[in-house]
Amino acid sequence: MTVLDDIGQPSPALLRELRGELMVYKFGVDELMTKLRILSEEFDFAHQHDPIEHLTSRLKQPRAILDKLRRKGLEPSIDAIREHIEDVAGIRVVCPFVPDVYMVARMLGQQDDVEIVRTKDYIATPKPNGYRSLHLIARIPVFLSDRVEKVKVEIQMRTIAMDFWAAVEHKLFYKYAGEAPEDFAAELRAAAATAADLDGRMTALHQRIQP
Ligand code: 0O2
Description:
Elements: H1 12-47, E1 54-59, H2 62-71, H3 78-84, E2 89-95, H4 98-109, E3 115-121, E4 134-143, E5 148-159, H5 160-176, H6 182-208
Parallel strand pairs: 2-5
Antiparallel strand pairs: 1-2, 3-4, 4-5
Helix pairs in contact: 5-6
The structure holds ligand 0O2.
Ligand 0O2 binds near residues 120, 131 and 156.
C-alpha cells in the first residue's frame, strides 16, 4: 500500500493511515518501557543498585519517516517502513555504569517475547567521531484486537557520560550540518575520550563499594 498520492505528496487521508500504523509502534514502545521499568525496579530491590538512571522514548514523525524513505531511495509504503526503517520507534536507556548497559541488554534479550534482531556496539568500537552507545534493534509482538503484529524498536543504551557527550555533540554539530572544521572535530573526539575515561573511573569506584 502506497502512502503518497499521485502528485507525490502525502494526502491527509494517507497521513492518517500512517498515524494508525504508528499507533502499533507506540504499543511496542509501551511494552518495552514497562519491561525496562520492571528490570530497573526489581534489580534495585534485589541488589540495592538500580542499573537504569533514566528512560526516554520517541516516535518518529510521519513526515520524517517519509523523508528517510526518500533519502534511502525506497518506495513510500507501509511495507517499506516495516522492513527498512528500524528507528520509527526509539527508546533511550541511560545507565550509571558501562557494565549496567550490557547487563540490562542481556536481561532484556533473555525474555521469551523479545527478539534482538541486530546489535551495534559503538562502546566496544566507537564511531570515528567518538560516539559511544550500544544500539539494539528489538522485535516485540503487540497483541491487537484481531491480530498480533511484530514491531521493531531501536533501543539506544549508554552511560550518563556517553549521553552527555551525545546530546551536546548533536547540538554543536547541528550548526555545521556535518561539516565541522577538523580542529573542532578533534576537540569533540578528545571530549569523547575524556567521557570514556570518566566512565572507567566511576565504574572502578562503584566496584570498590560493591559488597
Ligand atoms: P535521531 O534524530 O536521533 O533519530 P540508520 O538510522 O539505521 O539508517 P545508521 O547510521 O545505521 O543509520 O544508524 P546508527 O548508527 O545505529 O545510528 C542511529 C541513531 O544513533 C541516530 O539517529 C542518532 O540518534 C544516534 N547516533 C548515531 N551516531 C551518532 C553521533 O555521531 N552522534 C550523536 N549525537 N548521535 C548519533 P538519527 O536518525 O541520526 O537521528
